[in-house]
Amino acid sequence: MEVRQCLLNTNEIIVLAICNDQAAGFGCAQYYNSFCYPEPHGEITELFIIEEGRGKGWGSQIICFLEEKLLQIRVKEIKLLTGQDNVRAQKTYQKANYSLSDQVMYEKTVEGS
């Protein structure tokens, strides 16, 4: 019940790739509205394909599905974050027409919350 309730109370889109009745990958995207921006913003937060499925276009299909769902919500810009050394993922994102941004991301872990 906790997973179901979590999914009902979020602005998250989750897609699960199935191959031969087995989970073969997944992707997640989130969207949010802000007082500061006229349109909702979107972000692809997760993309994973099992090793045997990589290089077969499954990641691109998941990205396409997530983009379609975000477009239905009127999202005009989609961001994503990946590691500098994750070359395979970077190629997948570039193939899907994502471009490298010159923005700098800062990160902080807050303890004691």
From TrEMBL:
Gene3D superfamilies from the UniProt entry: 3.40.630.30
Coiled coil regions in record: none
Annotated InterPro entries: Acyl_CoA_acyltransferase (IPR016181), GNAT_dom (IPR000182)
Residue span(s) of domain N-acetyltransferase: 1-113
Superkingdom field: Bacteria
Protein name: N-acetyltransferase domain-containing protein
Protein source organism: Paenibacillus motobuensis
